[in-house]
Amino acid sequence: MGNTSSRVTAQDKAILDLKTQRDRLHQYQRRITVLTDRETAIARAMLAQNDKKRALLALRRKKYQETLLAKTDAQLAQLEQLTSNVEFALIQKDVVFGLQQGTRVLREIHAEMGGIEHVEKLMGDTADAIAYQREVNEMLAGQISNQDEDEVEDELAALEAEVNGGAKVQQPLPSVPDTQLPERREGLETPEREEPPAQAERREAMLA
Amino acid sequence: MSTTTPFFFPREYSFPPFFTRQTNLTTHHAQLIKWAALVLAYCRHHRLFKLSLSSAISDPLSSTAEPTSDTTASDLFHNRQLNRRLSLADAREVLDFLRRDGRVEPVDGTTGDVVWVYWRTPEEWAGLVEAWVDETAQRGGVLTLYELREGDATRGAEFHGMDADLLQKALGVLVKRGKAQIFGQEDSLGVKFF
User: Fold this and answer.
1) Structural domains of chain B, count
2) Contact B144 A19 (CB under 8 A)
3) Which domain range does residue B135 map to?
4) B101 and B144 share a domain?
5) Where does the record place a coiled coil (chain B) (predicted)?
6) C-alpha–C-alpha distance, residues B146 and A23, integer Å
7) Which residue of chain B has the CA closest to A12?
8) Cα B179 from Cα A109, distance rounded (Å)
9) How far is it, in rounded angstroms, from Cα A189 to Cα A131?
10) For labelling, which of B8, B71, B97, B189 has a CA lying 20 to 30 Å from the CA of B88?
11) What is the pTM of this model?
């Protein structure tokens, strides 16, 4: 128990106290609810016995207890609000702690980077190095003459044409035959369709 | 969480020899197993956490009413339709059998008349509570024991309305595992889950 007891903080105890209080109110409400139910039953019984006075008394008691119930409701709401406030404050505390931690780490990292001057100097060095590199590039590029450059570009154009041309050859689809079918015009009768070959045969026979 | 549906007794319950101690050793063992299962099922159905042996056995002759107190189980050992009942010694033997199984434990401070009936062992209850705490993301939070048993938040949870002492036992299991800590005064105990 010795090392675990440290895990319960004073805040936890305070929250427990609040919650216990809330539970007490809860129990109290239940008790009152039972009482009001009983008073109603008593009033009903008294009315059945034609004892109006006592019925009224019972109802009055019930009324009083109902006001108590409303009061405890308000108190309960207050307690619950307080409890959730405390819990939220605890979370806020955690958030602040987290922010603090994060800021500290961030600052440490900045310190490792060596301050703004250092970064400025570094950026300047980088710019110098880039400029130097560009110079070197220009010097090397100068060795290729303009003529060579033109030839290279021509070759590129030729290659492009080839690639695009090759793609174009594959593109066209076979053309759709556009000759009209004469039979369709003559109508839907099928026997007529079969006639022409027969006539042709006859003609061939006559020729023979 | 009161159960309104009637408890359906097993087939054996309407079999008269079931209420008489069997002499054959094998039969007797089978009888004990049946009785043990019946006791657990009965208590689970009626959500009985404790069983008082003497009141379960010696019920008033005329009473046909439903069990009222939370430790009576008048129709468990007494089949009124058959007019058969288990004798005190036999009932004790059944509970003894359950005790060896870890399903029954004498309540502290009594002479063995009132016993816990663990249709869920404290370990199982602990698991349920822990699962609930996990599910409702209440790790690191403080809850009162009353809240766990009667609060609106646990309505619908299995352990809602369970016996206070048994709940404390179950939480004791969690404490031992280092998952929880019970603190506060005697009458207003709270528990913090880790």
Assistant:
1) 2
2) yes
3) 122-193
4) no
5) none
6) 7
7) B142
8) 37
9) 88
10) B8
11) 0.64
Rounded distance between C-alpha atoms, residue B90 and residue B169, angstroms: 29
Query: Which of the 8 DSSP states describes residue B49?
Result: -
Indicate whether B85 belongs to any domain: yes
Q: Do A26 and B146 touch (CB under 8 A)?
A: yes
For residue A103, which amino acid is it? T
Cβ <8 Å between A16 and B183: yes
**Which of the residues B136, B139, B142 would you substitute to probe the A interface, choosing the one with the greatest number of A C-beta atoms within 10 Å?**
B142
One-letter amino acid of B99 = R
Model pLDDT for residues B69-118, shown as the tens digit of each residue: 445 566 888 888 888 888 888 888 898 899 888 888 888 766 667 888 99
More confident residue, A91 or A141: A91
Q: Are residues B66 and B151 in the same domain?
A: no
Around Cβ A78, how many Cβ atoms within 10 Å?
Answer: 12
Distance CA B151, CA A148 (A): 89
- Smallest Cβ distance to B192: which of A8, A17, A26? A8
Tell me the per-residue pLDDT of B139-164, one tens digit each, with 9 for 90 and over.
888 889 988 888 888 888 888 888 88
CB contact under 8 A, B146 and A15: no
Shared domain for B60 and B153, answered yes or no, is no
Assigned domain for B130 exists: yes
Query: Two tokens at A2?
Result: 């010795």
Tokens matching residue B52: 């008082």
A8 contact residues in B (CB cutoff 8 A): 181, 183, 192
**Residue B2 lies inside a defined structural domain of this protein:** no
* CB spacing of B143 vs A8 below 8 angstroms: no
Q: Which of A8, A20, A23 sits opposite B181 (nearest CB)?
A: A8
pLDDT tens-digit series, residues A93-111 = 999 999 999 999 999 998 8
> For position B101, what pLDDT does the model report?
87
Smallest Cβ distance to A19: which of B147, B175, B194? B147
pLDDT digits (tens, 9 = 90+) for A176-206: 888 877 765 555 555 555 555 555 555 555 5
DSSP A54-71: HHHHHHHHHHHHHHHHHH
Looking up residue B81, the CATH number of its domain turns out to be 1.10.10.570
